[in-house]
Amino acid sequence: MQKLYFLFLIFSLTIISAQSKTNLELINSLIDTATEEIAGKLGSTDSEISLKVNSPAEIKFLQNRVNYSLKSKGLKAVTENDPAKLKLVFNLDNAATSYLQIIKDGILGKLLLERELIISGTYYLENDYKVENSAEFNYTVIDTVLLEDIKKLENSSLPFAKDELPSEPFFSGIIEPAVALGTAVVAVILFFTVRSN
Fold it and tell me: What is the rounded distance in angstroms from the CA atom of residue 155 to the CA atom of residue 22?
């Protein structure tokens, strides 16, 4: 009996640890990847960097994440108005969530949603009014989540962290009831044929 409780506990912990990240958490991790690339190109620098982050109004919310992420990588960022020899201009052009398709996990399985999260933009480093390093970045993550969990993973107040759901596949709505009905018919037929013998 104790083994049964132990297996149940392991199974429960596996389910809890396998929860999906929210759309905002995934976009934040993509920003962290972009700032990691920038920090890698800058190398170790002890000088202060004047930081300017630009973005469209609908994703302006993410500017603080860019600042936080760059500072967590060890960059000594100062405000744009403070004099600094180095200047980093980070342009976050796009951050979006797209739901690609709804798929069925097996014949009688749950509905899954394939989602894609994207960030893109440019940055350049200016040293004594000369552009030294400029690049474009484009990061994407695609994963699959349970359709029933999507409302928990979205942030309804942030337009870039949600999207319209695609239509459910036509055959998944037909196959499941057909299999259930067929199973019931076979069970009734078997019941009466075995009983009559």
Answer: 8
